[in-house]
Amino acid sequence: MRDAHAGLTRFDEFRKSLGIAPTMLTGRLSGLTEEGLLEKRRYSDRPPRDEYLLTEAGRDFLPVLFAIGAWGRKHRGGGKVTRFFDAETGTEIDPVTIDRATGAPVGTRTIRIVAPE
């Protein structure tokens, strides 16, 4: 998902960036496609080649990805940790999850859990 948000769409681009076996990448891309985060689209018939594009659900996942990354930097920071930067300003992105209705940062107020009926 990180690489798709960075603009990668083709199998070979993902494979080069991730450095994983083709069979593993095929499984990951298939899973993300089945879950509706990526859409597989044919861009060449000869030879048959597909690209993987973010769906609306995939684009909506970006804040989640940023939040997970921030948590990892804070609590699992030993070793290599992926960081995100604003492409225009060059500043590191420091995500904060805010409740739209109250404007309060999530995790700072007591919550009530309501199970679906």
Report on this structure.
This protein has 117 residues and is of the alpha+beta class. It folds into two domains: 2-59, Arc Repressor Mutant, subunit A (Orthogonal Bundle), CATH 1.10.10.10; 61-117, no CATH class. It is 38% helix and 13% strand. It is built from five helices and two strands, in the order H-H-H-E-E-H-H. The chain has helices at residues 2-5, 11-18, 22-34, 56-60, 62-75; strands at 38-45, 48-54. A two-stranded antiparallel ribbon has the order 1-2. The two termini are 32 Å apart. The relative contact order is 0.11. The mean pLDDT is 92.
Topology summary:
Blueprint: H1 2-5, H2 11-18, H3 22-34, E1 38-45, E2 48-54, H4 56-60, H5 62-75
Antiparallel strand pairs: 1-2
Low-confidence stretches: none
Question: H/E order of the elements?
Answer: HHHEEHH
Task: State the domain count.
Answer: 2
Per DSSP, the total helix count is 5
CATH C-level label of the largest domain: Mainly Alpha
Q: Specify the CATH architecture of the largest domain.
A: Orthogonal Bundle
Q: Major sheet: size, sense and barrel closure?
A: 2 strands, antiparallel
> What would you give as the CATH superfamily of the largest domain?
Winged helix-like DNA-binding domain superfamily/Winged helix DNA-binding domain
| Residue fraction in strands | 5-15%
- How far do the termini sit from each other? 32 Å
Structural class label: alpha+beta
Shape designation: globular
**Can you tell me the CATH topology of the largest domain?**
Arc Repressor Mutant, subunit A
Number of strands: 2
CA gyration radius, whole angstroms: 18 Å
Give the % helix.
Answer: 25-40%
